[in-house]
Amino acid sequence: MPQLKSKKSRSKPREFPVLVERGPTGLKGTAKIYFTPVTVQGGRYDSFTVVHYDQGKRCRQRFNDYAKAFSHAEEKATQLSGGEMAAVSLKNEDQRIYGAAVEGLKSLGISLEFAVREYIAARKLLGGVSILAAANFYHSHGRSITKKAPLQEMLQAMLDGLESDGRSAYHIRDIKRHLGTFIAKFHSYDIQEITTSDINDWLRSLEVKGRTRDNHRDSVHNFFRFARAEGYLPKDRPTVADETKRTNASEAENTVFTVEEMTKMLAGAPDWIIPSLALKFFSGLRTEEMIRLKWDDIKFDQDVIIFGKHVTKTKQRRIVPLLSNLKQWLSPHRQPDGLIAARWSTAHTLSKAWSNHSKEVGVEYKKNGMRNSYISYRVAETKNIAQVALESGNSPGVIQREYLELVTAAEAKKWFSTMPGALPLTDPTPAGH
């Protein structure tokens, strides 16, 4: 590689790259000039790129004229040597130390100034712990980190894994929603930069109820466990999400519809919404399950509804009784096959339709109220928590804790005795439907 030190060498040389050095031995600053011709509309033109390193960062600048490229390389080499040879004024011992330091850093491709700034920042961060001790700790535990990727890319890998493992669409949807909010906040972070305090502060900033906040926390916790298992975090260390805080706030009591409210909603319902309303009130299925349920899943001759794995949240098959009043509500609308809620493409749009109808008939809509109602009235009627847990796809513990004594047995009898023939049914289909 030719080395040009004289201003007489500003004409284009025959060999590249050209190394330009400035400064005394041990204090030299360097820059390289590369010949990088360009082709424009079939013509080939000279182009020269000057490359130097500033605080470990590779800097490039292109010129069409070699003399200008050489001047720029000289300027950068002079700056890197210490600016007008200021280092030469150091005393002999200081100059030796300075020169040795600069020389030792060359193999790392960083400047002395950058190294000093990083050292100071590291010592402040470590407190009384030496940098060498911290490096040894990382060498022991950090070597299990084998991957690095943006948070969004890691989330997609996690979602792909959940889908391959057969997790339900309902579960994957919640994980994606929770972590999407999390990543929107920390998108510019490397996962190793996020702290427990960062996560706790984010959780506290969410304008949601305690249970929803805990669901977000659990999703983040699972995300960090996934990162550790896949090599994005040290395998033998706890993650920062392990110490995040759950809420202690007690949840508001589950809300249910009264018999009068349910009757009013069904009495004023148009034909196109009756099947979904009746199934929600009298079978306790989830809205996501309603979207996937088909008419041939309802066995009218056996008085049961079969929720297959493709329907349920947990991907576990369950059988729910087709109660006599529900059978009467569904029979006039019965179809041989097809989705019962084919009118709606998502659980959100279906839920919105129920909410709008509730408002039209003068009933306050209660989110999750129809499922809560079925479970509450069914427990009051049967006095059998285990049975209702199987019917609703819930755990006995949750039902024991959240659904007991919300309604009475007398109210439950009225609820499951509500028949279409006893109501003044109309079909007030709103304009536009």
> What order do the SSEs take from the amino end to the carboxyl end, as H and E?
EEEEEEEHHHHHHHHHHHEEEHHHHHH
Q: Assess the beta-strand content as a share of residues.
A: 5-15%
Uncertain runs are 424-433
**Global mean pLDDT:** 86
| Terminal residue distance | 79 Å
> How many H/I helical runs?
17
Radius of gyration: 35 Å
Helices and strands in order:
Blueprint: E1 3-4, E2 18-22, E3 29-35, E4 38-40, E5 43-45, E6 48-54, E7 57-63, H1 66-81, H2 92-106, H3 112-126, H4 131-141, H5 151-164, H6 169-186, H7 196-205, H8 210-230, H9 259-267, H10 274-283, H11 287-292, E8 298-299, E9 304-307, E10 318-321, H12 324-330, H13 347-360, H14 369-382, H15 385-392, H16 396-402, H17 409-415
Parallel strand pairs: 1-2
Antiparallel strand pairs: 2-3, 3-6, 4-5, 6-7, 8-9, 9-10
Helix pairs in contact: 5-6, 6-8, 10-12, 10-14, 14-15, 14-17
Q: Could you explain the architecture of this structure?
A:
The structure is a single chain. The protein has 433 residues and is α+β, with helices and mostly antiparallel strands. The protein is built from 17 helices and 10 strands. It has helices at residues 66-81, 92-106, 112-126, 131-141, 151-164, 169-186, 196-205, 210-230, 259-267, 274-283, 287-292, 324-330, 347-360, 369-382, 385-392, 396-402, 409-415, and strands at 3-4, 18-22, 29-35, 38-40, 43-45, 48-54, 57-63, 298-299, 304-307, 318-321. The strands form 3 sheets. It has a 5-stranded mixed β-sheet, with helices on one face. Strands 8-9-10 form a 3-stranded antiparallel β-sheet. A hairpin with a 2-residue loop joins strand 4 and strand 5 (43-45). Helix 6 (169-186) packs across helix 8 and helix 14 (369-382) packs antiparallel against helix 15 (385-392). The longest helix has 21 residues, at 210-230. The radius of gyration is 35 Å and the shape is elongated. The model is unreliable at 424-433 (pLDDT under 50).
